[in-house]
Amino acid sequence: MLLDFFLSLRRANIPVTLPEHLSLLQAMAAGIGTGSLSNFYTIARVCLVKDESYYDRFDRTFGAYWEGRELQFDRLMDEVPDEWLTRQKNREFSDEEKAAIEALGGWDAIMETLAKRLDEQDEAHHGGSKWIGTGGTSPFGHSGYNPEGVRIGGKSQHRRATKVWHERRYKDLDSDLELGTRNFKMALRKLRKMAKSDRQDKLDLEHTIRSTAHKGGLLDIHMTGERRNAVKVLLLIDVGGSMDWYAQLTSQLFTAAKTEFGRLEQFYFHNFIYEGVWRSNSRRHTERVSIDELQRTYSRDHRLILVGDASMSPYEIMVAGGSVEHWNEEPGYVWAQRLLEAFPHCTWLNPEPEERWPYTQSIGMVQKLMDNRMHALSVAGIQAAIEELKKPRVASTWE
Amino acid sequence: MSATYIRTEAIEQAVAAARTLSRPLLIKGEPGTGKTELALDVARQAGLKLHQWHVKSTTRAQQGLYEYDAVSRLRDSQLGDERVKDISNYIVKGVLWEAFEADEPSVVLIDEIDKADIEFPNDLLQELDRMSFDVYETKQTISAKHRPLVIITSNNEKELPDAFLRRCFFHYIEFPDRETLERIVHVHQPNIKKDLLNAALTVFFDLRELPGLKKKPSTSEVLDWLKLLVADDIPAELLGAEDLRTVLPKMHGALLKNEQDVHLFERLVFLHRQRSRGK
């Protein structure tokens, strides 16, 4: 059963491994997290999730898996060997307590009172006071005694816990989330990684001295890698309409990372690539740079990054004269292909949420054109895009 | 800082798990949410000795184990010093060595592990797993007499390797909600007036909500700020009142650490005044 839970986490693309599952079992064997589902939730998260960006996904998966299985969890805990549950032993009742239960009018009556009590306490809980775990004095708190396994303490705790994982407090930390100010910094960090080179060409003075001393005075030279800002970036951003906000954001993002690049050139386009792009939005009609000029001016080793929602009418891509702004002699895809040929290291960042992509025909077309190199404009997407840009592409003149 | 640290239930469990299974506990969270404080508190509460290892960008894993001071040995050999014959004279013990050697269980804090080189955590894998390491120069093996509780903090500046993460327990300290924050404040400033605290926290949470803040003020900042407010005996009314501007320079330096954020704050102050005037 716990293994099923483990597998469901893996299905949710949370990187959990068997050793981590085993350490969860070890923790439970030591009596940690066996008391209730909410305890289990905390300890499972401590053992299995190693990055806060997975917290939200973990919460959702946990909720989906344990919803309706609370009793099974309790039973599971009943099945485990005694030494696992030393705490549970303490829950055994004295005869007086059993008598007290009888005094309340037998089981059915208790259940009724319990339901009422639960309601009351739930309200009290909303008020902010912490009543969970204090029920030890009430006869209800100990009902683990019942063979049916209805355990009030556990149940109520679970309620609170359900709230915890249903609150989805870690939503902002999910790296699949689209780019915003919150995860801007993370994205920047990823971007900076792109600029690292590991060629060993600098004398490591300290290491050389140390190692020379180590060898009793025989010269022993060591080299080290230097951080070089060798990456050149050509950034093409879609502007207009819904894209404006993202255009600004991406532009900021790359400008912030500018010192890390050897060169950063920024251009704009509208909806799709045609004959030319422009540098400044205010002079877009007067000062255009043609695609041919881009090809001539910038060498093949520039990383081309296109940013756009790729949501438009298919005609704008496929047909001559399809552009919404001017009469284009040649269809957009021809221009895009030229651009891709000129710059083999290329990726497309799309601010549209990835799950909506299949519903827009033009996104599929662009994705095909890009040879599946379109990624979401999220931290995870940027990372994937950077991996893409690092890969050597075709047998080109590249380095 | 004072003697108490407010631990949430989740932190409690994470620490318990790490102690019971003697696994390293990795703590992440916004700067200023008390990651380092937690380690200090765990040691204090359990009455254990704390070994601190503050990591810098130049720190190497080996330094936590031991260092071989080859340079002084070279110098000694030139001077014909007798010590030069025994290599163990030049072995300098690191933090982990001292913790392993200790006669009673202890807590090891590896602070800001993300500051170091990307390979740093990988270089410590075996040592933290087996809690033992070899000293090649003297052919010794140092193993822990008592497995220390290792607490590692990270500010998320670099990603940590998967193999390392797999061996750790992980807890993310989120920013406390208002209720918890009030409890924390009470521990540090037991005598603070209730109305001042309320007014200050309202300003503070508004401030955190401000979009576009470069560095959101965190727990440690609000504590510093409140300390200033209390020290200057600023009445609560001043926080939302007309002459707020005159008090502002005295305190906002504790909360906001860069110029752009200060500008934003001034706008918030302005809005506050407008609002109170509207009432």
Description:
The complex is a heterodimer of chains A (399) and B (279). Chain A is of the alpha/beta class. Chain A folds into four domains: 2-85, no CATH class; 95-165, no CATH class; 182-191 and 230-390, Rossmann fold; 198-227, no CATH class. Chain A has helices at 2-11, 18-29, 37-48, 55-66, 70-79, 86-89, 95-103, 106-126, 152-167, 184-193, 205-214, 243-256, 291-297, 314-318, 332-342, 361-369, 379-390; strands at residues 200-203, 223-225, 232-238, 263-269, 276-278, 288-290, 303-307, 346-350, 374-376. In chain A, helix 4 (55-66) crosses helix 9 (152-167). Chain A is flat. Residues 81-93, 121-163 and 394-399 of chain A have low confidence and may be disordered. Residues 241-246 of chain B have low confidence and may be disordered. In chain B, 48% of the residues lie in helices and 15% in strands. In chain B, strand 6 and strand 7 (140-143) form a beta hairpin. By secondary structure, chain B is of the alpha/beta class. Chain B is elongated, with a radius of gyration of 24 Å. Chain B is built from 13 helices and nine strands.
Beta content of chain A comes to 5-15%
Number of strands of chain A: 9
Q: Give the overall shape of chain B, derived from the CA principal axes.
A: elongated
**How would you characterize the largest beta sheet of chain B?**
5 strands, parallel
Strand order of the largest sheet of chain A: 4-3-7-8-9
Q: Percentage of helical residues of chain B?
A: 40-55%
Structural class of chain B: alpha/beta
Described by its quaternary structure, the protein is heterodimer
